[in-house]
Amino acid sequence: MEMNSANVEAVVKQVLESMLDKNIPSPSAPAASQAIPKTAHVAMLTSLEHYDVKEFPIPEVGDGDILVKVEGCGICGTDAHEFKKDPFGLIPVALGHEGTGEIVKMGKNVKMDSAGKPLKVGDKVVTCMIFKDDPDIEMFDLNKKNVGGADVYGLLPDDDIHLNGWFSDYILIREGSSVFNVSDLDLDSRILIEPCAVLVHAVERAKTTGILRFNSRVVVQGCGPIGLICIAVLRTMGIENIVAVDGNQQRLDFAKRMGADKSVNFMEYKGIEALSAAVKDAFGGHLADFAFQCTGAPAAHSNIYKFIRNGGGLCELGFFINGGDATINPHFDLCSKEINLVGSWVYTLRDYATTFDFLKRAQAIGLPMKDLITHRFPLEEINEAHRTNLAQKGLKIAIVNK
Ligand SMILES: [Zn+2]
């Protein structure tokens, strides 16, 4: 057939019509969106220390919603508390807030993530807080408001959608949630975003004292995931004079791999005098300029002042939940030493976005971030995963979907 201009027009019209016809899938539609199952599997904490993996229908995806196929989710200390005691009174609840996955479907109104990056099906995402009607929570509003008062997926009361937590194979991100396109990070890094944001925030809080500098001597007390990530964040800032303090030699060895210059095992010292002398020794005869307190033990808070020089600073971030009262001597510990004390809890949205860059930097300078994830369990073994976490057998325990 000879193509005259009228023919060309007709063909073009036909092609355009077929593209606009909603019944015919466009050739560019990703395969993933066609493979969405009818039901999702959600691990619900249905009683203390017990999850049931339940099956729920995958709901309609509204114009502002995003359906995500979950790839993995870390187990947080908060999950451990919920598992053991349900302090928030949420049972039955779909837990898991350190999750990440791939967009498989999204509403027509969804165009960009919370940082202004375009979003499309196939992108890898994480969520942060869910906006309510709180004008104080804004994207680049550093230190003004942390997410402490906001809702997050994985800590929501159950509703008739049920796909509210990341310990699942699908989660429905609803309109008004903060969501970030993190397709340029690998799965392990994405699983670590949430805990890392806690440390990016803590270090931002610490910087407000004006004491953290290139050659500052810094003590990090507590070498669980939080303390270890603290060391990593400090290293990406060029701080190298770090002494790690813990009672577990394995964790102290990891702290050194993460970039601590020296370590002090408190089990080897009797009494706070001997311990603070050991910290001083580790700094070549100096007390610390700054200290990060990363344990939830009241005695650790009481002790840490003794490691800090006059005019030095302290960031307390270990008490994520109420761990009881700690005793200090206001005269010796605070006043006469003129200590600059900041507290830190969770993070702001801006810290969350900064964390993506931190993770790339940490990788670039060769920090062993991925080794923080010591155990990976499939969703069906979530009870076992939590028991492993409670037994403190590893560092970060993650649920990773097949
Ligand atoms: Zn967490």
UniProtKB/TrEMBL annotation:
Q: Which residues form the Alcohol dehydrogenase-like N-terminal domain?
A: 62-177
GO terms assigned for molecular function? oxidoreductase activity; zinc ion binding
Query: Per its UniProt entry, which superkingdom is the organism in?
Result: Bacteria
Q: What InterPro entries does the database record attribute to this sequence?
A: ADH-like_C, ADH-like_N, ADH_Zn_CS, GroES-like_sf, NAD(P)-bd_dom_sf, Zn_alcohol_dh
What are the residue boundaries of the Alcohol dehydrogenase-like C-terminal domain, all occurrences included?
225-360
Pfam families under this entry?
ADH_N, ADH_zinc_N
PANTHER family cross-referenced by the UniProt entry: L-THREONINE 3-DEHYDROGENASE (PTHR43401:SF2)
Q: Which family does it belong to?
A: Belongs to the zinc-containing alcohol dehydrogenase family.
What is the recorded name of this protein?
Zinc-binding dehydrogenase
From which organism does this entry originate? Candidatus Mediterraneibacter quadrami
* Organism phylogeny: Bacteria, Bacillati, Bacillota, Clostridia, Lachnospirales
